[in-house]
Amino acid sequence: MKTKPRSASTVVMKPKLKVILTDWAFMASIAGAFVVGLGLFFPYFYLQLYAVSRGIDGNLVFYVLAIMNAGSAGGRILPNFVADRVGPYNMMIPCLAISSALMFSIFAVKSCAAVVVFAVLYGFWSGSYVSLIPTLIVQSASHCGEHGTRMGVAFSIVSIAMLVGTPISGALLHRVDGQYAWYRPIIFCGAMLACGAIIFSVSRYLFIKARRGGARGQLV
């Protein structure tokens, strides 16, 4: 039995690793994601301990992580609808800037209400980054055959930052004169998020310069 040849539209192009690794907009986005990964999850691991050290009611502290994850659930859904209209870069960069500002605002968290507000807001904006980064990686592909390879390359590198980021924060937190040195990991993580926003801005510039925004122009 003879089989019909596949049409040109159904042929899947193979990814070329050299082309992917010399895509500077893509590599810049990986660098940005790596830096963000070093600091993004500090509150998820240490906000409860921070609240306890500030004398906040233990009954509330027990639910802080759940509250933050509830905010993250909204952040993983709602900003994506906005990104469809303004572009993933234009949505994600402000999300990182806001997350960085919130990280530094931890210094002002000294009451139950402040803990809840911070947990909801940080969960929302950090969750939006987590959901938008795969979209950004897919957008960088020149054809659909590159999607899997680009995702694999990106997350293989970024996973290293995700692995070591929280232990670095813990090392910075070690006690000084019997007290936790909270300012060290907070400043470090806030700076990492701010640097990530800057690097993604560079990636956006390189992406537009390469004229890969498609028919929608600046919608990236």
TrEMBL record:
One of its GO terms (cellular component) is membrane. It is a multi-pass membrane protein. It holds the Pfam family MFS_1. It comes from Mycena pura. This is Major facilitator superfamily domain-containing protein. It is found in: Membrane. PROSITE patterns: MFS (PS50850). It comes from the Eukaryota.
